[in-house]
Amino acid sequence: MAHGVLRFSLGNYMSDVEQSEPPLTASNRMQHLRVLLVEDSELDALLLVRYLHSNGYATQHERVANQQEMEKALAEKEWDVVLCDYQLPNFGVLPALTQLKRKGLDLPFIVVSGAIGEELAVDLMKAGAHDFIVKGSLSRLLPAIEREQREAKARHERMVALEKLAYLAAIVDSAEEAIIGQNMDGLIATWNTGAARLYGYAAAEAIGQPALLIVPPSHHQEAGELWQKLRRAEAVEPVETIRRRKDGASVNVCVTMSAIRNSEGRILGTSSIAYDITERKRIEAERTHLIAHLNETLSKVKTLSGLLPICASCKKIRDDRGYWQKLETFVREHSGAEFSHSICPDCMKLLYPQFAPNIAAGGAEQGR
After folding, report:
1. Ranges of H-type helices in 175-326
2. Maximum C-alpha span of the chain
3. How many CB atoms lie within 10 A of CB 119?
4. CA atoms within 13 Å, Cβ hemisphere of 210
């Protein structure tokens, strides 16, 4: 009698399953669910699918009965939930869980089986199953699926958030700049590798210490004013200032400070990003010195544009102190110009007439 009923039910369920699923519309409110059935009984699998369908779920499902079939199904498709019989002839809950873990999949895994002992059910939960449902009483199946889907989504969101935090932490720790977090008590909360490199303190030495650890006493007031501005939620422009290393040496830095806020906008502390500008300051100082030197030189050159007393006979020039100097000496000292001595054509004819024609001919030849 019981076997006849099962055969009759199987025929009905098979005919229902073979029919196309109704379209997902607002009117029938069907929810889509991708179900992987780890089940050796085709009848039990069809009963589960029909139960889900009758309760508003249009399923995309596949039945697997061994490790190879499950591995293939996991590799080729994505699933929302795994419904697993407790024991199959050559497979079962524990091997199925192991396969999921090996693939790194976090799917709701619900054991749907005949009645088993409470101790065994606890062992299955400890092994990684999320719930146990008795096949003869499926009233808890839908709430369990929905709950575990929510939990899986929450776990995924937490994992994504943790990965994002880890990535951001790696960016901060890999930055060349010194990045420091400070809490509302004025204590150092975070200290990256760049800060250790710039200031000389290891993270373990700096975290928990007052932020004034790296501020020389002469700049305490400046640092305090910037901190108060941030506490009042005021913007702070980047500032060039002085900081103090662990060895007591001063270092020129450019610091950008900003408030750290939570999701509600409440200020939790401040962050500062600093980089060493000592080399830039050195170059600026050299440039300033060079400009001053050039201005001084130019002021001396300008004296040549005034009225210069020059001897009509020897062509010496009288300087500001009353001394007479050779023309080239005076010009060299007041302009930095250098002289090379030569002889003009007219003087050549006058002083060396025997060489003048040859030099003139050579110049003409060069001109051609």
Report:
1. 193-199, 203-206, 220-231, 278-302
2. 148
3. 8
4. 8
Among candidate residues 212, 216, 194, 218, the one with its CA nearest the CA of residue 275: 194
Of 259, 211, 260, 257, nearest in space to 238 by CA: 257
User: Which two tokens mark 346?
Assistant: 């007219």
Please name the residue that has the structure tokens 């003869």.
136
Q: Please return the burial class of 282, using the count of CB atoms within 10 Å of its CB with bins 0-12, 13-18 and 19+.
A: exposed
pLDDT at 217 over 90: yes
Tell me the pLDDT tens digit for each residue of 22-79: 444 434 568 899 999 999 889 989 989 999 999 999 999 999 999 999 999 999 999 9
Residues in contact with 353: Cβ distance below 8 Å, sequence separation at least 6, in sequence order? none
Distance CA 243, CA 253 (A): 7
Mean pLDDT over residues 280-309, rounded?
Answer: 76
Q: How many CB atoms lie within 10 A of CB 34?
A: 14
Q: Set out the domains of the chain in order of their start, with CATH numbers.
A: 2-159 (3.40.50.2300), 175-276 (3.30.450.20), 306-367 (no CATH)
DSSP, collapsed to helix, strand or coil, labels residue 293 as helix
- Dig out the tokens for 352 from the structure: 């060396």
User: What does pTM read for this prediction?
Assistant: 0.54
For 271, residues 6+ apart whose C-beta sits below 8 A from its C-beta are: 179, 180, 181, 182, 257, 258, 260
